[in-house]
Amino acid sequence: MRALITNDDGIASPGLHALARGALAAGFDVTVAAPHVDSTGVGASVFAVAEGRRVKVHPQVLPGLEQVPAFSVEAHPAFIVHAAGDGWFDPRPDIVLSGINVGANVGHAVIHSGTVGAVLTGALKGWSGLATSLDCGLRGRDGAHWESVVGLLPEVLEVLLARPRGTVLSLNVPDRPAAEIGPLREAELAHFGSVQVRVEHESGVEGAPGTLLTTISEPDEIPAEGTDVALLAQGHPTLSELRSVSSVPGLLDDR
């Protein structure tokens, strides 16, 4: 099977390289295409830096992955996935693997994640997808346990490929050595994510533009049992099936 590997942390992310190595070890024919800069928080945006309708694609040689076709793209991850299915790659990918994200993607806040947005975009084309994330904080750290995610790939990919085409799964893994993490658990999405963003408006002085000051903190509420946030804090890797955009019938039935 042909796997497109992408992310929202950019082409230089060690998590991206670890995921590509894991996909190779799992027997996939791998192509890497990722944003040229960090695109965290872009969701399913298809923004691209276009000059005369042309988006620049820079061939890359990734360390330890010299045999893998790799590209740095001046675009967001969902655009990259969209392009892969509409004329860029021939043959087209069979599956989209996204990540390994720097930081957990949990709760309903996954709607903002470029890592998740990439696989949801692939689902619109009928491709199954897996978003992978390591709970190592927003900025990551030296010595992050990327291989703990890679070690779970065979088990999780078996689950994914047994599901109907177009299935999207999200895997979150504690930043611990593989021997210290608990069993894989299916998880509901928490009401909130792993962080809370607060925005304060600061007025400008003497006609100068105002600003929006953002601060990030841990949520105040305690996560419900069985949710991804709670299970991850207990040391369990979590797996959740996500659904893409769909309509709900019956809106005017009672008129």
UniProtKB/TrEMBL annotation:
InterPro entries recorded: SurE, SurE-like_Pase/nucleotidase, SurE-like_sf
EC category: hydrolase
GO molecular function list: 5'-nucleotidase activity; metal ion binding
Keyword terms, alphabetized: Hydrolase, Metal-binding
Metal-binding listed as a keyword: yes
Official protein name in the record: 5'-nucleotidase
Gene that this polypeptide is encoded by: surE_2
SUPFAM superfamilies in the cross-refs: SurE-like (SSF64167)
Superkingdom: Bacteria
Catalysed reaction, written as an equation: a ribonucleoside 5'-phosphate + H2O = a ribonucleoside + phosphate
Keyword Nuclease applies: no
Enzyme Commission numbers on file: 3.1.3.5
Domain (Survival protein SurE-like phosphatase/nucleotidase) ranges: 4-185
Family classification: Belongs to the SurE nucleotidase family.
